[in-house]
Amino acid sequence: MDRAHAVLGLLMLILLAACATPQVRPRAWEDLSGETGLASWYGVPYHGRRTSSGEVYDMYQVSAAHREIPLGSWVEVTNLTNGRSLTVRINDRGPFVEGRIIDLSYAAASLLGVVGPGVAQVRVRLSQPPQGAPGPVRYAIQAASFTAESSARALKAELEPQVAGVHIVKAMVGGETYYRVRIGNFPSRADAQATAERLAGLGYRVLIMESSDRP
After folding, report:
1. Are 118 and 167 part of one and the same domain?
2. Are 117 and 148 within one domain?
3. Distance, CA of 104 to CA of 88 (rounded, Å)
4. pLDDT, tens digit only, all 215 positions of the chain
5. Are residues 111 and 160 in the same domain?
6. pTM
7. 123 and 75 in a common domain
8. Secondary structure class of 80 (helix, strand, coil)
9. Which of 83, 102, 128 is the last residue of a domain?
10. Which strands, in side-by-side order, build the sheet including 176-186?
């Protein structure tokens, strides 16, 4: 009888173990501390080709490829070597090289200081998951980025008589505050391009980038 009870108890333990809810660990990029690893970048010959999202890849726009993060998500990428940080939109799949966790567009890699070395140790944090059906992409022009708010305000005051929609975006990068002077929230790259060319003709070094702002 004791043996029968022992066998029954063992069977119950096996059944309970089989029915127990497994503890699923979150994927690295879902962790609040972020995913760390190597970032690379891609440009030619992918420029002008379709991405996994169906968009045409533009190496001069701020975007990135990741193997798992949902397409349309915004992520914060921090270069752990120089402390630079940037929010980019995931619109493609990759990289497919062992040890690399994200593939940046040429524009994103330039802003983060990755183009020269080719790869860099970064941290990737999910900033904003895709919000239902993706809306139209908006564009902004970045004129400069300062650590001193007074410098950003001075440039803003200098630009305002020449162009509409000048604003300052405050961002934390590696524990330091940056003040980015941006212009507009354009519905198309062509609209942004026209304003950027006018500013370039006045001697300003500007960059067209996708905007996380929605209409």
Report:
1. no
2. no
3. 9
4. 566 555 555 555 555 444 444 444 567 777 777 899 999 999 998 998 889 888 889 998 899 999 999 988 999 999 999 999 888 999 999 998 888 999 999 999 999 999 999 999 999 999 888 875 455 678 889 898 888 999 999 999 999 999 999 999 887 766 778 898 999 988 887 888 889 898 988 888 888 877 755 43
5. no
6. 0.59
7. yes
8. coil
9. 128
10. 166-173, 176-186, 138-146, 207-211
